[in-house]
Structures are given as structure tokens and as C-alpha cells.
Amino acid sequence: MLILTCPCCGVAADEIELAPGGQAHIARRGPDSTDAAFEEYLFLRDNPRGVHFERWRHAMGCGKWFHAARCTATNEVFGTYPAQTTEPPQEIRDRIAERRTDQPKDSRA
Amino acid sequence: MKRYSAFAVAREALTGHRGWERAWRRAQPKARYDVIIVGAGGHGLATAYYLGKRFGITNVAVLEKGWLGGGNTGRNTTIIRSNYLQDPSAAIYEKSRALYETLSQDLNYNVMFSPRGVMMLAQTEHEVRGYRRTAHANALQGVETRFITPAEVKKIVPIIRLEGPRYPVLGALWQARGGTARHDAVAWGYARACSAMGMDIIQQCEVTGIRRDGDRVTGVDTTKGAIACDKLGLVVAGHSGVLAQMAGFRLPIESVALQALVSEPIKPIMDCVVMANTVHGYMSQSDKGEMVIGGGADGYNNYTQRGSFHHVEETVRALIETFPMLSRLKMLRWWGGIVDMTGDRSPILSKTPLQNCFVNCGWGTGGFKAIPGSGWGFAELMAKGHAPLTDSFSLDRFREGRFIDESVAAGVAH
Ligand SMILES: Cc1cc2nc3c(=O)[nH]c(=O)nc-3n(C[C@H](O)[C@H](O)[C@H](O)COP(=O)(O)OP(=O)(O)OC[C@H]3O[C@@H](n4cnc5c(N)ncnc54)[C@H](O)[C@@H]3O)c2cc1C
Ligand SMILES: [Zn+2]
């Protein structure tokens, strides 16, 4: 079973305690944006077979949102970090680079 | 291709079964094809078949990284129905269901289509209203379905418990000509027919890159070398995001694991398909006697081909609630497939930002039933640039807000 440590309350939570929230770090578009920008914001996803930055909610625990870096092919977890970030922190990227020599430094690229 | 027939069986029985041919040729890639299809699942193979049969395009290769039919096509629970809500869905799914009726004769290969009836239980007032609406929509679309009473449900499925502890059965949407087919046979039958037309089906040949010249595709890189093509069709279900990344565009798709399981074989107890969307589970009985059970999809992206355990627990719990007699049944096998989910739960059959590259994906949890219809329409799209069956399913519907919203009509994986 997938276990993620909630950075808000520190509990190592089983996936049945958590609610998945999809790809992280998607910038919300404003009312003046083009249709293409809205399409990107609402629908287009990276969907990588590899490192994925994603949102989770500790639904059956403290209730807070947070972020996780996880490999979608193996479920290896590279770490969790607070929701109040617009990109993965350096520390998480370093850990990914350390363990995944096959991955680009910023796997969103 | 030697045809299969009662006469052929008799002849082979008398001559020691030495005259059977390989169903399809083992092919090595040529340097160039008119059309390359990536992915030898049902949809890729059916596309190739109808390219040849309807449009005379036979210089075609179907490239498969594993073995043909080894993706979701060989992992699904084989439910076939066409009782969808929206008109474009009804058109393609009903075309598909109709093609299934005569597919064995068409392919000269027994796909064991069994129109045994599909029953979708209504277990909340909301579902009753939803299914009545679908039945009305289906009547207008020319799809034969009917809303039936709990008494009729019990008559068709005597093992069902109508007064469940959480959700009583309030009625059902019944499609008498829905049913099941043999999944492997569908892939094998199309593969055999494609090979007979001279097409190359190349297994253990993974596409690792897509070659481009500006906004045109020129060919693909594979584990068996580079192959050039005039047109490219990406038909790789859960791996569509990976192929799109190679081609340099993004798709409105997320991949998740979907699971199924089968029990030990038992005597016949249920001769139709029953789906229970509210409690998340569905079941049919295979010809071998196994209860074939499908469950929910994972909530988060993954390519693990395995899925989370608690979904199986939820599914089994729901089924025992509805069919208490199953409680002592042992489960024999359990597996997962990676399904490609779109935002409106409808597929994408479309042109792409690259001129001569087309995608057929997003069938998610329910594309087995659509294999013949999808192949029929997608072949036309690839050959002619547009097709009545597929035009509504284009990629730009997400940008333009023309969704084909089926997430209400199909609350559960199927
Ligand atoms: C558990 C489960 C139950 C289901 N139940 C039902 C059901 O009851 N009814 C129903 O209608 N649908 C059902 N479905 C959905 C259905 O199985 C799929 O929608 C359908 O089979 C998709 O067919 P396909 O040909 O598009 O994909 P697939 O059969 O997955 O074929 C895609 C192929 O592409 C290959 N591929 C991937 N990447 C590459 C590459 N780089 N190079 C070369 N080849 C590649 C794969 O190996 C694979 O063989 C179910 C699915 C699952 C997983
Ligand atoms: Zn917490």
C-alpha cells in the first residue's frame, strides 16, 4: 500500500487515509486568458511514466493539502512537501537526481 | 489464408491436424510503410483491418512492444453494450455492437460474441431517474434498451438480493442485445485477417521515438530500427501520454490502473451481465464457469499494472451485498491494466498538431465494446481526413467546450 508522510501533521498515512488531487503546480488562469490557456489549465496533463509531482489531501487525518513526488511506474516516493509552493523544492529535485540518473533534472521539462 | 470451417475441422481430424497454418505471419519490419499503427491491441488491429477492407490500404505495419492483445484488450472483462447517453457515443458504440453481431463470420474467426443481455442496476432514486432518461435517449437513437422493474430483475437474475442493506434494487436499465465476447479472439481474429491482407504485425517492437520534419511525421524509431511511414496512428491506450510526449504534444489524458478478478469455476448461476454502479462492481459468468468481476479504477496516476488493494476489497464487499451466495467463493486470478482516462470519459479519435499523425485513445475503462466501431471510424479518419463516426471525438473539443459527457452515464468501470 502506498504510504505518504503528511508534511503538515507528520503522520505516515496509508493511501486509504488520503485523497489524490492530480498533477501539481498547475497555474490557475485568469478570466482574460485564451481558450488554449484554459484548455491547458483544465485538461492537458503531463501523465509521465516516471516522476510525477502531484497533490494529495490528508482527508482522513488533518485535512490539509500537500504535494508529493512519486514515480508512477514503481510507486517509489521521493518525498512530500507543503502545498504552498509553485514548484518542487530543490531538496526534492536533488533526491530525484540522486536516485534517478535516467531522469532529466527537472522532470517536468 | 486457409479458411476455418466444419469441413476443415473434419479434414484435419482425419489427417492428424498437420495442415493447420499459423494464424498470422511472423514479420520483420520493412524500411517503409504507407501507414504505421503503434499498438497491436484491439483498436490498433481493427484500424488496420478496416484500412485494408474499406479503403484498400494494405501496405500497413502494426507495431507492438509486447505480444499482440497483451494490453488492456487481453485484460478486460469483455462487457459489450451501447446504452450510452449522448448521441455521438450511441452512434459509435451501437455501430460497434452491430459489427460484433456478425464479426465471427466477417473475420472467419469465432470471437464468441454472446448477446446475453446487460443489466445496469438502479439502486438510488437518482439512478432511477438517470437510467429512465438514458432509456428515452436510446429510444430516440435507435438503441434498443428498456427500464425494467425489480420483479423483472429478479426473474432474469434469481440469485440477486433486491433488499440490500444499503441499497435496494429499484429497477434496472436492460439492454437485451448487449453481452460479452472472447477478448483474445477479437485481437487474434483481426490479426489473422490483417496478416492475410499482407499487413505486417511486428511484435516485440517498441516504438522509442517519433521522427519529424517540421510538423510532419516521417517515421518512428523502434527497438528493431527506424521505420519510415506516410501516416502514423497512435493506438496505445494507457501509454498514449508517453507516445504523445515523443511526438511533442500533450493530451487531456491521465493513466490509472483498473483491476479485475475471477473466481473458481462453478455451475451456471447467472446468464447475463450485471453492473451495479452505485456500489462499484459488476459481474458476469464465463463459459468456463468463473465469475468475472470488475472493480474501480485507482484515483491517482500510475503505470504499475497492479492497482491498489482497497479497490478490490470495495468491489467484493459490494458484490456480496448484492449476491450473498458468492460469499464463500474463492478468487483464482487478479490483475490490472493501465487505462487512459479523459475529462469527459469519452474517447479521442482525432488529428493531432502533427499533420499526418492521428490518435485513437481515451477509451479508459470501457473500450473493448468499441473495438470494431472504433476501427471502422478511425480507419476512415486516417484514410480520408474526417469520418462521421469520429468527428465529434476530436481533440479540439476540450478547447472548444464540446464535451461528450458520459461520466454520469457510466459511474463504474466496464
Ligand atoms: C480490468 C479491465 C477491465 C475492463 N473491462 C472492460 C469491459 O468490460 N468492457 C469494455 O468495453 N472495456 C473494458 N475495459 C477497457 C478496454 O480493455 C480498453 O478500453 C481496450 O481494450 C483498449 O484497447 P486498445 O487496443 O486501445 O489498447 P490495448 O489493448 O492496451 O493495446 C495497446 C497496445 O499498445 C502497446 N504499446 C504501448 N506502448 C507501445 C510502444 N511504445 N510501442 C509499441 N507498442 C506499444 C501495448 O503493449 C498494448 O498492447 C477494461 C479494462 C481493464 C483494464
Ligand atoms: Zn496530515
Write the layout of secondary structure elements.
The complex is a heterodimer of chains A (109) and B (414).
Chain A: E1 3-5, E2 12-14, E3 19-23, H1 35-42, E4 51-57, E5 65-71, E6 77-82, H2 90-99
Chain B: H1 6-14, E1 32-38, H2 42-55, E2 60-63, E3 79-80, H3 87-101, H4 103-107, E4 118-122, H5 125-141, E5 146-148, H6 150-156, E6 171-175, E7 179-180, H7 183-196, E8 200-202, E9 207-213, E10 216-222, E11 225-234, H8 240-247, E12 253-263, E13 273-276, E14 281-285, E15 291-297, H9 309-322, E16 331-342, E17 348-351, E18 357-361, H10 371-384, H11 397-400
Parallel strand pairs in B: 1-2, 1-11, 2-8, 4-13, 11-18
Antiparallel strand pairs in B: 3-7, 4-6, 5-6, 9-10, 10-11, 12-15, 12-16, 13-14, 14-15, 17-18
Helix pairs in contact in B: 2-7, 2-10, 3-10
Provide structural commentary.
Chain B: This is Sarcosine oxidase subunit beta. Chain B: Its main location: cytoplasm. Chain B: Belongs to the SoxB family. The complex is a heterodimer of chains A (109) and B (414). Chain A has 109 residues and is an alpha+beta fold. Chain A has a single domain (1-25, 48-109), classed as 2-Layer Sandwich (Folate-binding fold). Chain A is 17% helix and 28% strand. Chain A has a 4-stranded antiparallel sheet. The N and C termini of chain A lie far apart (29 Å). Chain B is an alpha/beta fold. Chain B has 2 domains: 31-82 and 84-109 and 183-252 and 344-410, FAD/NAD(P)-binding domain; 118-177 and 255-341, D-Amino Acid Oxidase, Chain A, domain 2 (2-Layer Sandwich). Chain B has 11 helices and 18 strands. Chain B has helices spanning 6-14, 42-55, 87-101, 103-107, 125-141, 150-156, 183-196, 240-247, 309-322, 371-384, 397-400; strands at 32-38, 60-63, 79-80, 118-122, 146-148, 171-175, 179-180, 200-202, 207-213, 216-222, 225-234, 253-263, 273-276, 281-285, 291-297, 331-342, 348-351, 357-361. In chain B, the strands form 3 sheets. In chain B, strands 1, 2, 8, 9, 10, 11, 17 and 18 form an 8-stranded mixed sheet that branches. The radius of gyration of chain B is 21 Å and the shape is globular. The two termini of chain B are 34 Å apart. Chains A and B meet through strand 3 and helix 1 of A and helix 8, strand 12 and helix 11 of B. The complex binds flavin-adenine dinucleotide and zinc ion. The site of zinc ion has 8 residues of chain A, from loops.
